[in-house]
């Protein structure tokens, strides 16, 4: 049978979180909550210099302290570890390629240099403070400016495949042109839950409770590191306190904890302190983007050039693909995209919400606004004029796009037609109002996934997959899909996820988990119903002697032409079967002949009081086109959270390094500024177009985790210009840049 999920009202309903009661009551176990029998506790010793060599490491005082089991470091560790080549297709990836304690070289401040193991967390921490490390220190660099001054040469990456035409010639010949440099700082992920690992070995099998956005990836990676077959590694993450991309792939502390557990023969627990979340678990690269844009007398874009330089570590080369959006989003015949990286003494960068696109669209949408101002054209009109219904790089039509409708609905709700374009002209009492707009976009992606659905004799339905819920609502969308497919109430659907022993699931990153997973869940429901029908016509079953083809499944019951109807529970009990099961899978392939993205527009109002230098975001309206909305409550949560994160990107967040020592100086929640309740807009409204994209998938849903942050910083910067007449091209927009 083929199920039409959208025939059910359950798809799209704003249901409360099915995992909410577990979280509110404390039943939900996060990685650091796993305290196994006989468990030991680890605490790290971290480098106090940013570049150099370890010359001595004295652990004698630490070893003599009560409860201390051992102290591990580069001269006292295991050599039974293996490097992992990155291979996304095989689910293999680490975020820092250097193995823990691989040598005596220091690449960045806060690098893990020793690991104390004791019978309590407090004793391990106290002993770690007794470890004495001396260094031979070299001059470090922790900013693009400092690296340039020290003579560090940027490393050019291979030419972008997104370039086309002759951008330089078109720019020179165009009637209207604009060129500027836009910079974005280091940002740190700072999820509520810190990175944590609890590892134990059982008969040669490794079991890890890990704060990860990908239990399958983590399982595969750890298996390679330890030379095991994947079946001998289990990774469990039933709950995750968010990650924003920093928990996608494996970090050294996880590998070290698993290795040390093997060495000491007991379970070991390790949690990364907040200060080291700023050093050893990734960050968003700093970028410097040179952007040139031009248009003809009618406002048609003639060229775009986006050359990005981003920071990376001395360990790993990572490109912040800021130029991923400009070549595809607007109609433009001449585009030049280039990327370079510059190595410095910081930890390895990692994906952070909308990697590449968040800083890249800040530059793109700021430049669009500046071009519109130079042309005396309404910024929204310029964007409309350069709309394209196809991917400009692949020369393929979008599987679906409703960006023009998003512009219309967002502008109408915001009241954009009342905007006076003159900077500083709009006032409300003593406040000067600034109105800004920016488009937003992100890739629409899928990956392969499996799902298993089981009708249980107790009257419940279980759906399972080795996916994880990072706070986005995966528990909900899986339960709703099963409910829509079977007619079983959501409260009778059990969702089992976050365990790599389950059938393979996708990463929770890139906004692709829902789109990858739900078609597999739908197919698993269909196959489970098929197996139930097979059971229903067996001897002693209520439908014995009837044909499977004559049975109809609806609302948890099978019925026949004769009028007989029985629940799946009755059927299973009649033949003494515990369950009827089905498995589904998707390969993540895109439909030929189409390209897919998600689109939207942010409209932002800021208030500026020059007398007291008070700047705040007072109103945001975001119109988003992300296909079918499966749960309006969790979807709105996602976009609203991304908008708040975008406010942080625009006005607050900036990891600051002391250029003398190379250490991050605001490495705590008190001094790493993020938006709090007092910084929230008075009005924040998310408009979903809610139009299924069936060219993308049979469910019609696309990802929405990343899109909300893209373009938001530009919309704020554009609004700030409208209020103050000052164009801020260097994030964050701090008060001293306006006074």
Protein architecture, described:
With 739 residues, the chain is α+β, with helices and mostly antiparallel strands. It has 16 helices and 29 strands. Strands 3-5-1-12-9-10-11 form a seven-stranded mixed β-sheet. Strands 7-15-14-13-8 form a five-stranded mixed β-sheet, sandwiched between helices. Helix 9 runs parallel beside helix 16 (712-724), helix 12 runs parallel beside helix 13 and helix 15 (632-651) packs across helix 16. The radius of gyration is 27 Å and the shape is globular. The model has no long low-confidence stretch (mean pLDDT 97).
Helix content: 10-25%
Q: Report on the biggest sheet.
A: 7 strands, mixed
Mean pLDDT: 97
How many helices? The count is 16
* Number of strand segments: 29
- Poorly predicted residue ranges: none
List the strand order in the largest sheet.
3-5-1-12-9-10-11
Share in β-strands:
15-25%
Q: Which overall shape is indicated by the principal axes computed on the Cα atoms?
A: globular
